[in-house]
Amino acid sequence: MSETNSQSPKRIIIVGGGSAGWMTAAALSSVLPENAARICLVESEQIGTIGVGEATIPDIINFNAMLGIPEAEFLKATNGTFKLGIQFVNWGRQGESYMHPFGQHGVDMNGIDFHQYWLKYRQDHPDSSIEDFSLSAIAAQGGKFAMPDPNPRSVLSQLRYAYHFDATAYARYLRGFAEQRGVRRIEGKVTHIGQHPETGFITHIDLESGESLDGDLFFDCTGFRGMLISQTLGVSFQDWSHWLPCDTAQAIACERTGEILPYTISTAKQAGWQWRIPTQHRTGNGHIYSSKLLSDDEAIDSLLQDLDGPALGSPRKIRFQTGHRTKLWEKNCVAIGLSGGFLEPLESTSLFLIQEGISKFISLYPTAAMPAVVSDEYNRQLVKKFEQVRDFIILHYKATERDDSEFWNYTRTMDIPDSLSARMELFQEAGRIFRYEDELFAKPNWIAVLLGQNIAPKSVDPIIGAVGAADITRSLQSMRSAMQGAVAKMQTHRAFLEHYAWSGETV
Amino acid sequence: MATLSLVNALGSDHHIAQVNASATPPADDIYGGATSPESYNFLRGLGLDEPLLMLEGRASFSLGTHFRRWRPGQTWHQCHHAPFPTIDGTPLIHHLTRSRTPLSEVLISAQAALAGRFAHPPADPATPLALAEYGYQFDPLDWVRLLDARIETTRVERLKAETITVQSQVAGRTVLALDDDIALEADLIIDATGPARTVISQTGSHFIADRTVNARISRQAATQTGQPGRVIEASEEGWTLKVFPQETELSLAITSPAEPNETLKGFDVELGRVSEAWQGNCIAIGHAAWTIEPLSPAPMMLLQRDIERLLELIPTTAEANTERREYNRRFRDDVDHAGLFHEALLRQEGAMNSAYWKSAAGGEPSEKLARKLRQYGHRGIVPRYDLEPFNNEDWIILLEGLGKTPQDYDRQADRLPEAETQNQLRQMKATIDNLIPRMPPHHIYVAKLKQYLEKKRHV
């Protein structure tokens, strides 16, 4: 097999820094055997990066663990905080809010999903909320945090968390990590991309400095421009803007004035929504909207009006198109991050999709010949992942009763993918959820959003009919009381952070 | 199984009747007499726990299916196995490819089956036996008897009739007639009439036939319980399956209906599936919905999935459009995905030039299977489709058994020096080799287990 080893790509060039570029560099330098390949990352300080991925989902913990990054060190370096879920405000109806927590609701019993017990319980307790049975939701609402307990019998084992952090600081941290492992960083702008005249494979990139870099394998991390995958290789784009009509964001940080919330807030607005992401010393904010229905000035006014502290700087405008490249790997080029596709960060999936792109690539690591059999499978898996995340995001726009603006009238009445419509109908009948095998969002995620946005099942599953109402009430009240007791003993989020990973920086 | 599942799951406000029609020919033998490890909890849920199956169901253990001379040079044990261990964080298959080590050497359940030995996998993950998984071998006649006795103790109404026919079909609602004159109406009718498809065939759902085979079944008593796994052996005419429940040997010979040798003749079985398993108020399960050859435990796996899918989607309205659509989508996926596994076994180059093998290797090749073969052949990757019945380990064992070795392996395997990899693999093999002789022969294990269970029962 040593002969085949010599065929692996020896010169890897990553074009573009930011989260995508440095996550790729860090992962490759960490998993590839020493001296297996020479990795160069080319980035230009003149070209800004887009930091929309500051809120994450629990999978980021696996990525950091794969690299062997100590959690406290990472949180200090990135001004990170813990995240137990997302609070959605004004989505189903104006004036309402719900929590989409990480982890599950309650405990499944006798092979029957917990939410079926809760749906029956609610028939006699109409004021009950399913959030009352989520440890993450109760802790989030109380501003508390604790580490999950690995003992499955402990109620704390139900806790799941992710992070909020400064994505620019994360890229900087990963840069240090990657450079320590031999990644060469080259400062410079790419002026030309060379291709093989017959195969069309990318052969080299020329820099403004006059330097030319030859490569066997190229990663396009150039953001929306897609310098390699789109401008050079001409891979087309699958546009989903008819389902997800927002196309612009205005982002700004502000001073943090209150407690550090252990959750993200997403507030639906006239023609889009606004995020609020608490890091240790400031709050990240952004207003995502449809530019066809809201002017930039109106969007900025709305953004600034809803900050909860003095603004730090001026809003930064980001234009985007929702969808993905029809091929995320073409010839010897792999598009990671925004160059491969974009889904608005409503469920904090931006860094997850980068992570998926990298981990699938590593699991399919090619020979230098870049056989189509490998890229074909990569593209199949990545496109499926984009489609699954897409459906979950569309759900938030479709499952609404809002009729107060053209934007909501459009999303409420638009046609949606068959895969989503079948799933919504199934839930509406008897609260049933069907999950695809390798789907990112699990049953509790779908249940939180469907119920949170007032998609009420017409009936409960008949199999719950055999369980007595008194038994259900006793079980659920016992669960709730155990969760409340566990949360009461937790530290506040801030106290936990100060003890565990306080950065010591100021604004 | 469906009756017991329904009566266990639904409250007493649901009336359940079971109709046994003596004119419907039994076809349980073509389920293949073996379950997969996934059936353990399902069977327990029906009240068929292991002590009952051993003491009253004449079950024995199954570590998989031994394929003997499937093609020239192709003999392997298609064993049940827990997820393969990783070495240095890289999947086992890449290290095996790198060091050219045969997979079967490091599979405890394959080696135990080859030696005719069995012991329950312990909970302690430190022993390689913990990675073995097992199902059961059984005689369907025994299990039907057990299930029947259990149903007798429930509130299920038992009806008997010579014939069941469809009396009327109005607006998608089927009404049955027992013995041509007693009308039987129901909100939901489960058609479990096997290949006769008595009800579903009258609802507008049509059978999509793949091909027809001939099956001949025989039973004979054995002086002791046989191997801890089924045996399949190929011949020019087709193949023969042998199943070894307690002190019995079941034999099922599958040939072509065009087979000229009259001594091999049994009854014809049309393979394929119905277009919609749920049509109107009728749901077909088991052989009424699909018929596939018992080359693997797929028939029992699919039957279990049919019942589980039914329980997940018990309708809440008369129309049940949403549940029906979802049921049929998953039904098609499940049957088609199980079919890929069998297609891989049957569609091979160098197949014998007889009526059975030509027919088995014919038809349109599946793109999904082609993708699996391409990816595995290239670098040991097995692409997964949604909720496939067979897991990664099943596929890797199958493809290795069929001699499809990956051309290359994951580069991450190179992080470990080759000598170290070989050392670890040698240790795995040596541990297994040392353990196997200490495991009891299958027949002795079954006998001792029964003695123990009997004693425990009377304490």
Written description of the protein model:
The complex is a heterodimer of chains A (507) and B (459). By secondary structure, chain A is α+β, with helices and mostly antiparallel strands. Chain A is built from 16 helices and 23 strands. Chain A has helices at 2-5, 18-31, 59-67, 71-78, 114-124, 135-141, 167-180, 227-232, 296-305, 350-363, 372-398, 406-413, 418-430, 443-452, 469-488, 493-500; strands spanning 11-15, 38-43, 81-83, 85-89, 97-101, 144-145, 162-164, 184-187, 190-195, 202-207, 212-214, 217-220, 237-239, 248-255, 264-269, 272-278, 282-289, 311-319, 323-325, 329-330, 333-335, 341-342, 491-492. Chain A has a seven-stranded mixed β-sheet with strand order 5-4-15-16-17-14-18. Chain A has a six-stranded mixed β-sheet with strand order 8-2-1-12-21-20. In chain A, β16 and β17 form a beta hairpin. In chain A, α2 (18-31) packs parallel to α10 (350-363), α5 packs across α15 (469-488) and α10 (350-363) runs antiparallel to α11 (372-398). The longest helix of chain A is centred in the C-terminal third of the chain and has 27 residues, at 372-398. Chain B is of the alpha+beta class and 459 residues long. Chain B is 33% helix and 22% strand. In chain B, α4 packs across α12 (418-435) and α7 runs antiparallel to α8 (321-346). The chains are: A alpha+beta (507), B alpha+beta (459).
